[in-house]
Design a protein that fits this description.
By secondary structure, the protein is α+β, with helices and mostly antiparallel strands. Helices cover 27% and strands 31% of the residues.
């Protein structure tokens, strides 16, 4: 009997994982949609991804199953290296969409750049958690935030700031 229950649980969790899985290309697509919809000018992005730091009390907007998926993705985050010509932003001065410059050396002095995370995506792909850090490496500080976005009528809206740091 215990083996049958264990087998059923494994099947349920496997189906749920399959349902909630988001591929790397889907995450890039979501990231580009968020950058466009929120008009983020992320012109230089660090090669290495940032890790998302969230706490249980930040997940009150999620259902129990969504919380399981978010926590699983949070625990299994790995350092991702962003690929060139995958992330775009809207260049306001040129009035056109351009690819972000992916920079390998994020410790260069006096150069503003951004560190971002790959998004943590809800199973229904309508909610996303993402971390964005702006840094100038100039001893004047920077800012960092972990944000909750939701998709309404085909557009991503920043709904909530989960963590914020300004220095």
């Amino acid at each position: 009997m215990k083996k049958k229950i264990l087998l059923v649980l494994i099947i349920i969790f496997s189906c749920y994982y399959w349902y909630s899985f988001t591929s790397e290309s889907e995450k890039y697509e979501i990231l580009n949609e968020i950058i466009k919809d929120d008009e983020l000018a992320l012109f230089k992005i660090c090669t290495k991804s940032d890790k998302i730091e969230i706490f249980e009390n930040n997940l009150s907007d999620f259902t129990f199953l969504e919380q399981l998926s978010v926590n699983f993705q949070k625990l299994t985050q790995t350092e991702h290296k962003f690929k060139s010509e995958k992330i775009q932003y809207f260049n306001r001065s040129l009035n056109k969409i351009e690819f972000c410059e992916i920079i390998p050396n994020c410790d260069k002095q006096h150069e503003i750049h951004y560190k971002i995370s790959l998004p943590i995506v809800s199973p229904d792909k309508q909610s996303v958690i993402i971390k964005i850090t702006e840094d100038c490496n100039c001893m004047l500080g920077g800012q960092s935030g972990t944000y909750l976005y939701k998709k309404y009528d085909g557009k991503w809206k920043r709904i909530k700031t989960l963590n914020r740091r300004i220095s």
